[in-house]
Amino acid sequence: MTFYIFILALLLSLQGFAQATISGSFTPPEDFSWLVVYQLQTDGQNYIADGRIENGMFSLNLPENSLAGSYRLVYGIPGDQFYFDVIYDAKEDISLLFDKEQGLSFTDSLENELLNSYYQEINATEEQIINSYLDGTANTPEFNNLILRLGQTQENYEDVSDGLIAGHFIKANAPYIPSGSEKFQDYVTHK
C-alpha cells in the first residue's frame, strides 16, 4: 500500500513541474524556418527558447520556471518587424495558427483567444463608427447603436476577462467612446 501511495505522490508532483508548450503552424510553410521566443519585460526582452519550423509546424517547450506574462514570438529578420505577442498564463499550453495573409489565430489558449476576439470586435465597431462619419450618417439612430455596442463590448470583455492576464490588456486598451454625435475631427482628437 505504501508503494502505491509513493507512486501516486510522485505522479502528482511531476504534474506540477510539467513544461508548457507553444505549438502551431505557419502558412505558407516554405516562408518560415525558425522561431525565437522572448519574454517581454519592462526593460526589454529576455531570450527563452528557439526552434525550427519544419513543414510549417513547430513545438517549443518553455523552461519549467517560465513566468506568466507577455511573450514575443519572432519568426523573421528583422525581429522588430516579424513577430507577434502572446500571453502565457503559466497554466495552459498555447496552440496557434499563423497565416501570412490571414494573420494570427489561436486554437488553444483561453487568454489569447479572448484577447484576439476582443481586438477584432472593438476594431470592427470602431471601423463602423468611422465609416458612419465618412458617409454622413453620424447623426442617426444606427450611429448611436454603434456607440452603445462599443461600450457594451468593452464592458462585457472586462467582465469576462476579470482575473485573467488578458483583462489587464483589455482595460488598458479601452477605446474612446463618444457620449453622442460629435464632429469627426473632435472624435479623432478624443480618440
Task: Please explain how this structure is put together.
The strands form two sheets. The protein has a four-stranded mixed sheet with strand order 4-1-7-8. The protein has a four-stranded antiparallel sheet with strand order 3-2-5-6, with no helix packed on it. It folds into two domains: 2-107, Immunoglobulin-like; 113-190, no CATH class. The protein is 39% helix and 28% strand. It is an alpha+beta fold. The protein is elongated. α2 packs parallel to α4. The chain has helices at 2-16, 110-134, 141-160, 165-172, 184-190; strands spanning 21-27, 34-41, 44-52, 57-61, 69-74, 83-88, 94-99, 103-108.
Distance between the termini: 67 Å
SS class: alpha+beta
The helix/strand order is: HEEEEEEEEHHHH
The residue fraction in helices comes out at: 25-40%
Strand content: 25-35%
- Poorly predicted ranges: 1-17
User: Main beta sheet: strand number and arrangement?
Assistant: 4 strands, mixed
Look at the structure and give the mean pLDDT.
Answer: 88
Number of helical stretches of at least 4 residues: 5
- The strand line-up of the biggest sheet is 4-1-7-8
Number of strands: 8
Count of all domains: 2
Q: If classified by CATH, what would the architecture of the largest domain be?
A: Sandwich
CATH H level of the largest domain: which superfamily?
Answer: Carboxypeptidase-like, regulatory domain
